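ARCHIVE CARD
SHELF: 3
SLOT: left
DATA:
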Amino acid sequence: MSDQELSPTLLELLRQVDTPTVCNAIEVAQGRRGFDNYTKGTMHASDPTAPAMVGFARTARIAGLEPPTESKEVIRERRLDYFRHMAGGPRPAVAVIEDMDYPHCVSAWWGEVHTTVHKGLGLDGALTNGVMRDLGDLQPGFPVVAGSIGPSHAFVHVTEFGTPVQVMGIRVAAGDLIHADRHGALVIPPEVIAKLEAAIRTMQGSEHLILGPAREPGFNIEKLEKAWREFEEART
């Protein structure tokens, strides 16, 4: 996937809408229900008021429940190679990190230092099934959506990068287009990108068929029945 496939207009729209909206719009673009490459379970947002993060995935795996068995030199060089990986690739970009200790994650990769460093390298946010910490001190403008919150970095270290990962039920390869906010995250299928802006507009219009009448004075069951018929005909 190339950053050329994401137009400035679509990027701006994706940053304005929430992840449930995009989830629905993908089904509109596909013409069917059943899209399921979204996170499952409750996640934690470092800033619930932040706009959605949108970007092409830069992937890696970490661990930290137990000390690494490799030498300090190997671990240090791999971490530098990880940063080189994060600094590359198409933009906008989101770091997607799988903690291999899940569901027993204890090591916070995301804190004040790493959010600052990754934003400096040109990334727009992070998604992980692992731990974040330093709430209140995370780099402004770099949202993190994480599996849990905790105080320690434990023995955290990079195990690999650039490979496909799994985070809270979604499968992510490097270069996949991610949309995430306080609700969780999803991977936007490449084949719907060209149709996604129109699908979002269509989905928003169909919801107005219900929301408009429901907010008007005098709304009642008869008006609901009429509006719901129109809504059913318009939605996926």
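SLOT: right
DATA:
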Amino acid sequence: MESASSQRAKASLVRSAPLRDLTSKSTRLMTGNVRGSKSTTSRLFTVRSSADIWLLPSQNLEENAAAIVKSPRECHWVIGDVHGCYQSLVELIALLPSSDQLVFCGDVINRGPAIEATMLLAWEMVCGGRAHWLCGNHEQHLIDCLEVDPQDGQAALLTIDTYRQLGDRQAREWLSRLKGLPLVYKAKGWIATHAGFDLDGNPDLSIRQRFWEDYDGRYGRVIVAHTPRPQVERHRHIVMIDTGACYGGLLSAYCPERDAVVQVCGDRKLNQHLACDVDKIKEALTREMTTSSSLVSAKPC
């Protein structure tokens, strides 16, 4: 098994390699299809292992006026829904430059086989100043269920993977940390939030089509997760980075400053299909699109 330093060295070589040197990898075309936004077509490189990473070619994405917040690092990597895929997260972090800032775009918890280890790793990086962890709808759902009367909330809690894996005592020990998670991360020319914004500009942790169709770029380029796609999709004002790691897809990190993507395979234990099983991701997307968006009354998607 390759060491982390060896993996980082390979990542560096791929990042610096001209696009023509990468064309020997298996490729396919992907076209974004979010209505109401101008999408681009990119040549993508299929990922089969943590060493087989790729970068999307540079795009001419429109830059929009946005509030500028001084960020602690020059470059950031915004990471899509981890959903307890601890081993995939470890492999992904090993490939990213240690001097860059990480932003977990929500839904670090639930679904995967190693939720506690994933939470501890993300929180350690937050406390160490390397990362920011944004609140997703899964974190908010756990918060809501923990804060209601135990007699009313126990049934709902037992449906939550994180609660079952942590147990009641540890889940409640995490409550204050989860309640302190920010909803938005701002930097120069871009902003990250879990799912999008409502018409009044407030973060909405479960919004989908309404944001995709109505957003006009007023807050800059918005990087969102929440909705699994077969690959990272970059549109005129929106970048969608959830690539279904917990469904056996990919765990993706997107760098807005370099306009680059690094990916590793998701959790194969949850889905034995190939890492780029587009049909499985589409099936998951269809299921999620028909689920209620309520954070309290329905199990979150």
